[in-house]
């Protein structure tokens, strides 16, 4: 039982990291990414590959995941972030499909079988086992990322980002370099998702393309919308709920996607600010544009 | 025919129109003049239903327009030639005119009206199949007026028909308005070009920052020293002439 | 071999084009992407297949019923997932459409199960030789029907009162209202027509691949969107051209480059188009 709770806690922690990073893109850059799981996957595969093939120690593997996912985010963001929201949504979705196909078709990624025997993280003499210390590793990473996110959104830069989200043209007139901000936030979010991928790969110890497809991207989107777009605390709550709820409602497994779909439409109509959004951090700002 | 009673409306929080009252009688040409930003376009948008009136009442031909949707208002016989002409650029000239009669069920009469209109404005026949966006500004203005006439309006409203046109086109457009007046069309004309508007109008209202500050017969307004100074530019002209 | 691939590409491309028309018309009038277009395609296929499976309905009636059902799903979708959100930040209807798409897909999964259903009616299709080239009559029939639908749509938009009114709403909503055009009704009509065309495409592909399943709309929907962008969003001939081109590119790419990346072709083209010529091949109104 404890092991099961620990398992849920670790998964929730990883989803919280992912949801928070996606919320940076949605709630602060005003863009929807439907390919966020691709960065999660890129991080996971990178981390696994450098550990398996080059014997990188865990910290270096995480760093590689961060750098490679971030670079991919930059590479995708640079040419595409000037597009309108809906175009970007499709481009990121297309990116997700392409990355998925790459995992599935390359030899080095193991095709549909994926990679196995990914080593558990070690620091000094300590091994972070799934039933043991792994949760500490996840929580520490999570706290670090939350701290960074909060200091970012509360800073001058955070205010600039909110200005972009709410009124891009006005922000530009005010002298905010909106493309640079959007690219920065997109790259950062991709890098953070890469870290989550690394944490996931070394926890599960085997990965395949299934975990990083469109389904995961949409699950992440649901977490953000449920918690409230633009609310960091909301993403934490949204991610935990949607990570834990399916486990508790196993007998309704078939209805899970139906529920997610209804949840997205229903929430946007009835409570667009999500569970936690309120005031200026909430989507209320976004929903009615005058 | 058309009556506005202390109408307030606007876009954001602060109202642009701060309670205006005016009326147009059948057969009259009435002009609403004022500087840029006085609220002239807002007034027409409110009458035609594109903007909701926050307070006050608008009545046309015995019907209350205050809560009516624009697509319904036009069926009562109130047509607007919008500011900047707003022709449907990729559609043909003929398609634009046909859309002007969209609500009408009397197909045969619509065909006759179209022929009549083409006889009156030959350009609309010459350019019949051309995309409206390829017409010159003046031609587009004629098309926009023709399109509004296709609705068989009891009252025709025009928003700055002279805006952005070459001087000879302004003369042409005002000749058309004079013809319409002769044929008994009731007109509410909004203009920044007060000189041209007051020449064709029977009566006028002067709008300043959302309020009507002056009204009277067009001839009187033309002679009013305040109007001359602020809207007809007489004072400056005398210095220069 | 090359000719066969070209024909394969044109056949799937015709389906992409029909779906792309729905995207483009809806984008033209509402300025938003209906992410659930692929699910409407799936709905059309399912209704036709289920009706035919009863053995009581003839083929043409089932085809029409499938199109009608798709049209109704589209209209209902607009009422539920889009209309209440008008005037919101563009992110909001976008996410709502994604939600609707997942909902419809999983609803189909619950109702019909995950397995492929074969098309209940077997046709006698053969290969004939036209000008020395082999032509499958199935592909010929699909292409002819798809081109027929496209021609009907073009005639409707160009020459009918309501067609012109839809264009007027797409060009200038306020002025259209001043003409007495009820924009809401035109939006409904647009969803109706666009969805009926997607439904027709769904039925054709259900025959072509002899398979109907809940997720069948996902990839064609996304590819058709790429086709709409390729042709210039809001541009009707562009959507047709974009769909056909994309189908051919995909088919030739799979034959001569790599079949594993077949599904990536559309997105690679999409990303390239957006980078190089965001207004599409034929200029769209979209951007």
Strand content of chain C: under 5%
Structural class of chain A: mainly alpha
Largest interface: A-C, 47 and 46 residues
Total domain units of chain A: 1
Strand order of the largest sheet of chain C: 1-2
What form of chain A results from the Cα inertia axes?
Answer: globular
Strand count, sense and barrel status of the largest sheet of chain A are:
2 strands, antiparallel
Determine the strand fraction of chain A and express it as a percent band. under 5%
Please, how many helices of chain A? Answer: 12
CATH topology of chain C: ABC transporter involved in vitamin B12 uptake, BtuC
Mean of all residue-level pLDDT scores of chain A: 85
Using only CA atoms, what is the Rg of chain C? 18 Å
N-C termini distance of chain C:
39 Å
Number of strands of chain C: 2
Characterize the main sheet of chain C.
Answer: 2 strands, antiparallel
The overall number of domains of chain C is 1
Q: H/E element string of chain C? A: HHHHEEHHHHHHH
Based on secondary structure, the structural category of chain C is mainly alpha
Helical fraction of chain C: over 70%
Mean pLDDT of chain C: 90
Fraction of residues of chain A in helices? over 70%
Secondary-structure blueprint:
The complex is a heterotrimer of chains A (290), B (241) and C (287).
Chain A (H helix, E strand, L loop, with lengths): L1 H28 L6 H19 L3 H23 L4 H21 L16 E2 L2 E2 L6 H21 L1 H11 L1 H6 L4 H27 L9 H14 L4 H17 L7 H15 L13 H4 L3
Antiparallel strand pairs in A: 1-2
Helix pairs in contact in A: 1-5, 1-8, 1-9, 1-10, 2-3, 2-4, 2-8, 3-8, 5-6, 9-10, 9-11
Chain B lengths: L1 E8 L7 E8 L4 E6 L5 H8 L7 E6 L2 E2 L5 H4 L4 E4 L11 H8 L6 H14 L1 H5 L10 H13 L5 E5 L7 H16 L3 E6 L2 H7 L2 E6 L2 E7 H6 L1 H8 L1 H7 L1
Chain C lengths: L1 H29 L6 H17 L5 H24 L8 H22 L14 E4 L2 E4 H23 L1 H11 L1 H6 L4 H26 L9 H14 L4 H21 L5 H15 L11
Antiparallel strand pairs in C: 1-2
Helix pairs in contact in C: 1-5, 1-8, 1-9, 1-10, 2-3, 2-4, 2-8, 2-9, 3-8, 5-6, 5-8, 6-8, 9-10, 9-11, 10-11
């Amino acid at each position: 039982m404890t092991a099961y709770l620990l398992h849920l806690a670790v998964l929730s922690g990883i989803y919280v990291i992912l949801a928070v990073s996606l919320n940076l893109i949605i709630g602060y850059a005003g863009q929807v990414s439907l390919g966020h799981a691709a960065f999660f996957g890129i991080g996971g595969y990178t981390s696994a590959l450098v550990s398996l093939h080059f014997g990188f120690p865990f910290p270096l593997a995480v760093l590689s995941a961060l750098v490679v996912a971030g670079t991919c985010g930059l590479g995708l963001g640079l040419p595409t972030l000037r597009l309108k929201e809906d175009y970007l949504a499709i481009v990121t979705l297309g990116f997700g499909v392409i990355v998925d196909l790459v995992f599935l078709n390359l030899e080095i990624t193991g095709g549909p079988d994926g990679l196995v025997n990914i080593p558990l993280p070690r620091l000094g003499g300590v091994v972070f086992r799934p039933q043991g210390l792994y949760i500490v590793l996840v929580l520490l990473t999570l706290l670090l990322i939350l701290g960074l996110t909060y200091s970012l959104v509360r800073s001058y830069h955070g205010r600039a980002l909110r200005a972009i989200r709410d009124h891009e043209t006005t922000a530009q007139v005010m002298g905010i370099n909106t493309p640079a901000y959007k690219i920065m936030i997109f790259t950062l979010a991709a890098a953070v998702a890469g870290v989550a991928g690394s944490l996931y790969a070394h926890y599960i110890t085997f990965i395949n393309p299934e975990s990083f497809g469109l389904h995961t991207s949409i699950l992440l989107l649901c977490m953000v919308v449920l918690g409230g777009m633009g609310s960091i605390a909301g993403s934490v709550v949204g991610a935990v709920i949607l990570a834990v709820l399916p486990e508790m409602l196993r007998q309704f497994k078939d209805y899970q996607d139906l529920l997610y779909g209804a949840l997205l439409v229903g929430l946007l109509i009835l409570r667009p600010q999500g569970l936690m959004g309120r005031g200026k951090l909430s989507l209320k700002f976004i929903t009615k544009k005058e | 025919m058309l009556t506005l009673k202390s109408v307030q409306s606007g876009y954001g929080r602060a109202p642009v129109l701060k309670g205006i009252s005016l009326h147009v009688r059948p057969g009259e040409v009435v002009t609403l003049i004022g500087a840029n930003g006085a609220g002239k376009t807002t007034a027409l948008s409110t009458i035609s239903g594109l903007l909701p009136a926050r307070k006050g009442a608008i009545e046309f031909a015995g019907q209350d327009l205050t809560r009516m949707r624009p697509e319904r208002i036009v069926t009562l016989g109130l047509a607007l030639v919008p500011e900047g002409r707003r022709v449907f650029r990729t559609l043909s000239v003929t398609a634009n005119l046909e859309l002007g009669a969209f609500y009408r069920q009397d197909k045969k009469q619509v065909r006759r009206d179209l022929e009549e209109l083409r006889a009156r404005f030959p350009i609309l026949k010459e350019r019949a199949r051309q995309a409206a966006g390829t017409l010159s500004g003046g031609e587009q203005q004629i098309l926009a007026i023709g399109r509004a006439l296709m609705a068989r309006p009891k009252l025709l409203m025009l928003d700055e028909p002279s805006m952005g046109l070459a001087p000879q086109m302004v003369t042409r457009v005002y000749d058309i308005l004079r013809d319409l007046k002769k044929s008994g069309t009731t007109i509410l004309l909004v203009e920044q070009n007060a000189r041209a508007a007051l020449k064709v109008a029977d009566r006028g209202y002067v709008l300043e920052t959302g309020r009507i500050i002056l009204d009277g017969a067009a001839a009187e307004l033309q002679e009013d020293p305040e109007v001359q100074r602020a809207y007809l530019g007489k004072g400056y002209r005398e210095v220069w002439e | 071999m090359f000719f066969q691939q070209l024909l394969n590409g044109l056949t799937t491309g015709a389906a992409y084009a029909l779906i792309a028309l729905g995207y483009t018309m809806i984008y033209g009038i509402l300025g938003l992407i209906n992410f659930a277009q692929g699910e409407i395609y799936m709905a059309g296929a399912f209704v036709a297949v289920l009706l035919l499976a009863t053995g009581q309905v003839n083929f043409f009636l089932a085809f029409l019923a499938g199109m009608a059902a798709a049209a109704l799903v589209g209209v209902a979708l607009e009422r539920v997932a889009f209309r209440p959100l008008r005037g919101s930040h563009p992110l909001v209807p976008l996410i709502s459409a994604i939600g609707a798409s997942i909902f419809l897909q999983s609803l189909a999964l619950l109702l019909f199960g995950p397995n492929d259903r074969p098309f209940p009616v077997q046709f006698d299709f053969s290969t004939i030789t036209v000008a020395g080239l082999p032509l499958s009559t199935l592909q010929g029939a699909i292409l002819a029907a798809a081109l027929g639908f496209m021609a009907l749509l073009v005639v409707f938009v160009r020459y009918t009162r309501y067609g012109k009114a839809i264009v007027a709403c797409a060009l200038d909503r306020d002025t259209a209202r001043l003409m007495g055009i009820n924009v809401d009704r035109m939006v409904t009509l647009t969803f109706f027509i666009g969805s009926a065309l997607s439904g027709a495409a769904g039925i054709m592909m259900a025959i072509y691949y002899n398979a109907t399943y809940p997720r069948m709309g996902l990839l064609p929907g996304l590819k058709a969107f790429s086709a709409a962008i390729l042709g210039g969003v809001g541009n009707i001939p562009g959507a047709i051209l974009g769909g056909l081109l994309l189908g051919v590119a995909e088919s030739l790419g799979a034959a001569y480059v790599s079949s594993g990346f077949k599904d990536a072709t559309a997105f690679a083209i999409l990303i390239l188009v957006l980078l190089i010529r965001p207004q599409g091949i034929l200029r769209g109104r979209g951007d």
